[in-house]
Amino acid sequence: MTTTTVRQVIETPRRPDRTAPRETRLRALDGLRLVAALMVAAYHYGGRGGEITTAWGSSPKDQFPTLSGYFAYGCLGVQVFFVISGFVICMSGWGRPLKSFFASRASRLLPAYWVAVVLVTVVFALPMVAFKAVAPSDALVNMTMLQQPLGVDRVLGVCWTLWAEVRFYALFALCVVLPGASRRRVIMFCAGWTLAAAIAQASKEPLLDIVLMPEYAPFFIGGVGLYLVHRDRRDIYAWGIVAVSFLIGQHYAVRSLWNAADPNAFAHRTTLGIVLVVAFGFLAVTAIALGWLNRANWRWLTVAGALTYPFYLVHEHLGWVVIHGLHIGLGLPSAETFALTVASMLLLAWLMNRYVEKPLTPKLRSALAKAR
């Protein structure tokens, strides 16, 4: 067998119909996005200390004596988001030129983000609000989404995850989208990033850590691998990427979130609990990738997916204000306050999606795509 023949065997898909599926709306993925966002909201409202204690008037442990320990695991919704993001970015970047990819990502992130920054800044500046607003200069820097690397106070507590997302987009764009997506290129990207992230961890070089994100890379890479599984469920390389990513990802999650040795920790998460939540994220996206949840094709899931990003942006800081007003101001019980706060943030997210994202996203995408 000649070298050319061997190369053709490696590059030729075994089953064209499995390797290039007809892309349809994966509504179950939209639903999973909202589940991850609600997990993070539960953590911010009842699974940690800090500013939320001021909102409730006491520790969330006092408000939710039993549930607060479970809410503490909600922070892992971020890792679930990252797995979803890896899947979605690989899907949306496949076969798309760099300019179109950039226009799609920028128009998706920026309109709601800008409005969220303005909303939180304005609300926190009101004299009756008990929480401190950032300085005007810092608020302006926040509009760039580069406040974290610049060392500027954050308007939105959750924006650190967007900084991780932006770095992932940049790596994927340079290594996959720019040269053109292909199965082999994506596999090499995943393998190369996994190895480089391990080297960055061992070297303890701050620059490598910033660029390669060892703590979060396994989740993005795992999502990318699951998109390859979606294209061809028999792709052994894709399954290998997913398996290695899970094994490394759960290690980082346990290392950063297991706090049994800290007597001052808000809640003591168990290693098993952390691993199970990480496994849930990987298994849920795997089920979607394999088509096992295709029957979950309800239209309301698309609405849920559309609300997730604006809800994620505004729920923490504006949630403090709502909780304080309902629980301290009006004297509503904890459970009713929790439910009404989540509902009010979902309503605000719907308004942002309806009146900000829907009109502005296509206009911004079109302008960026046409710009030279």
Principal-axis shape equals: globular
Whole-Å distance between the termini? 47 Å
Radius of gyration: 21 Å
Instruction: Please give the number of β-strands.
Output: 0
State the share of residues found in helices, binned by percent: over 70%
* Major pleated sheet: none
Please provide the ordered H/E string of secondary-structure elements: HHHHHHHHHHHHHHHHHH
User: How many helical elements?
Assistant: 18
- Average pLDDT across residues? 92
Percentage of residues in strands: under 5%
Structural class: mainly alpha
Task: Give start-end ranges of low-pLDDT stretches.
Answer: 1-22
Please write out the topology.
Layout (H helix, E strand, L loop, with lengths): L2 H9 L4 H4 L7 H20 L4 H6 L3 H4 L3 H5 L5 H17 L4 H28 L10 H7 L4 H4 L8 H19 L5 H21 L2 H7 L4 H15 L4 H22 L13 H19 L9 H31 L4 H37 L2
